[in-house]
Every structure is written in C-alpha cells, then in structure tokens.
Amino acid sequence: MHKNAPKIELVAAADYPSLLPKTRSGQAMATLKSHDTLAKASRIIALKTAELRGAVLELVKQMEQAARAADWPSVYDTTHEIRGLAGTAGLAATGRIANGLCHYLDAIAALGLKPDSAITSLHLGAISRSARTDDDAARHGDAVAQQLSALVARKLSEIKDSTTVQTRLFRPS
Amino acid sequence: MSGGAFEHLKALIVEDNQHMRALLRSLLNALGIAVVFEASNGEDAFVLLRDKQPDIILSDLSMKPMDGIAFAREVRMSTSSPNPYIPIIMVTGHTERHRIEAARDAGVTEVLAKPITAGNLFQRIGEIVDRPRPFVKCPNYFGPDRRRHATPNYAGPFRRRDDFENDLAVR
C-alpha cells in the first residue's frame, strides 16, 4: 500500500448487528410497503393535524414577539420550528415561506450581515397570514411562497456579487 | 402470535418538540414498534441509549444543550457508546446543504426532511432494513459508508484506500 494511505477499516454490513434478522427482513419490507400500513399511518397524521396546527399558531406568536424585539436568533429558531411542523399540519405554504426565511437568515448570518428589514417583514407577514388562513394553499400561499423565494434568491445573489467585487478590489497584488 | 416484523424492536426518539415526538411515536406504533423511548435532547438520549438499549434512533438536529449532530458523533465515536452501529435517522427541517453534510459527517445513517410523511419515514427505515451499508472506521470518522453511488468517470481527487492501492492517488 502507498505510504501516505490513511488508515481506513471497512466493516461489512454482515459483520455488525443488523436492525432485523435476515429471516424477518422480507416481512419487514412488505409491511413498510403495504398500502394498509401507509393508510393507517396517514390516518394518524390526519388525526393530528388540528393539534399540529395549534402548535404552529403558538410558534407564530413566539416568532412575532421575537421579531418585535429584533431578536433574530429567536426568530430563526421559531421559524425553523414552524417549517418543520407546518407541512404536516396541512399548512404547506406556511412551511415553504418559513423555509425561505430560514434559508435567508442562515445565509445572512454566515456572511456576518444584518438581515434586510423589507425581506424579513415580508416573510413574517406572509407566515402570520398564511398560518391563520384555513385554506392557505388554495388561496395565495403558494404564489406568495414562490415570489418570496425568488426575492431571497435575487437578494442573496446581489450580496454574493458585491462580496465578490469587494474581494477582487481588495485582493493584495 | 401475530409476529409483526418490527414488534421486538425498541426505538428512541430524540426531539425537542413534543408534538413532533408524539407524531413520530404514533407512526412507529403504526409499524408495530410498541416500545418507544423519548428524549428532548442529545444528553438525555445518550443516557437512554445506555440504559434501554434501543435498536434504532430517530433524532432531530436542532436541540439544546446537545444537538443531533453532537449526539450522533457521540453515539458513533465515544468509547462509552453502547452501540456505535445503531441506525440513526436524522429528522430535520434544515435543508441547508452545510447542515446536511455535517449530519452525514457525524455518522447518521439516513436523513429525513420535514415535513414528515409516513411514506418518507418508511422509505428510510426500508433502506436500513434492505440495504445496510458497510461502516467506515478511520481516524476522524466512524459511521456508514458515505458513498452511495459509484461514479465510473470520476476524475478525482483520489483519496480512497483502493485509490492508493491502485496508485491513482499519486497521479
């Protein structure tokens, strides 16, 4: 072996304990792919929708409070929770808008910049509104999510361009 | 005896949101997994891992004081880990590439993006049952092989052991 080769050991799947014995894996796969199992699980999710929606609304209140205090780490945390729950709560557009805001805040924080108030307030307003609307996806939620996503992409691209220009301008010769 | 394939399994859910914990528990119950332990952060989960010896872990990423990435690393790398080979499904709302890569590099077996659907969760469990991956042990990583696909026309860089053996790495 080459002298620079890193020390790497490979443990084959057969050499460590498997989740299920081989004799049960066929039955397990059949269970996982069964329409009955999926239907049962989907019914469970449907039954929890109202409870999850209540949880999302509670998070929206916390997000609004954090935004009023300009506490951006908390805004990020609550928006992140919203994006995780909203889709399962039947609030798909709310989840997508929250995802867009998280994506923006994450990128901005990585660059060490402050968030643009127009972008944040547009997202926060849209999240508050769509989470409180019963049939948000059927209304304007999806279109708003799409527009906001385009806005974030454009804004981040502008920032990236200006950062590149600055890097070029200040690069030592 | 009904003999459900999953009936003897024990699962551990690590998630700080109680609603998500309850949802995951119900979905696992629907599969036939009756014994489900719950923790709201990585530290508590590690205690349960030692005490209850679950067979599979479903873990969130963002938690305090110990997040899902630190927890996964502890499960895989710690000398006090009772089962470094345990399958870990990271259930996360994070879609940012750097976070997913961090989870993969901590040794998680599968990543499941929120919002959760039953189909997606079962598909990830199916991967673990049907296509278990070899584990890689090297100085800075222990976990499932992160290469899922072969790339025949790969042009480098060459860092794998067999690359060294075939002298590709010194091109």
Number of helices of chain B: 6
State the helical fraction of chain B.
Answer: 25-40%
Q: Nearest-angstrom radius of gyration of chain B? A: 17 Å
* Termini gap of chain B: 61 Å
Proportion of residues in helical segments of chain A = over 70%
Unreliable spans of chain A are none
Shape of chain A: flat
Sheet with the most strands: spatial strand order of chain B: 2-1-3-4-5
Written as H for each helix and E for each strand, in order along the chain, the element string of chain B is EHEHEHEHEHEEH
Could you say which overall geometry of chain B the principal axes of the C-alpha atoms support? globular
State the separation between the terminal residues of chain A, measured CA to CA. 43 Å
- Give the SSE order of chain A as H and E letters: EHHHHHH
β-strand percent of chain B reads 15-25%
- Rounded mean pLDDT score of chain A: 87
Q: pLDDT average of chain B, as an integer?
A: 88
Task: Report a brief summary of the structure.
By secondary structure, chain A is mostly helical. Chain A contains 6 helices and 1 strand; from the N terminus they run βαααααα.
Commentary on this structure:
The complex is a heterodimer of chains A (173) and B (171). The longest helix of chain A is centred in the first third of the chain and has 34 residues. With 173 residues, chain A is mainly alpha-helical. In chain A, 34% of the residues are buried. Chain B contains six helices and seven strands; from the N terminus they run βαβαβαβαβαββα. The mean pLDDT of chain B is 88. In chain B, the strands form two sheets. A five-stranded parallel beta sheet of chain B has the order 2-1-3-4-5, sandwiched between helices. Chain B has a two-stranded antiparallel sheet with strand order 6-7. Chain B has 171 residues and is α/β, with parallel strands linked by helices. In chain B, α1 links the parallel β1 and β2. β1 of chain A pairs antiparallel with β6 of chain B.
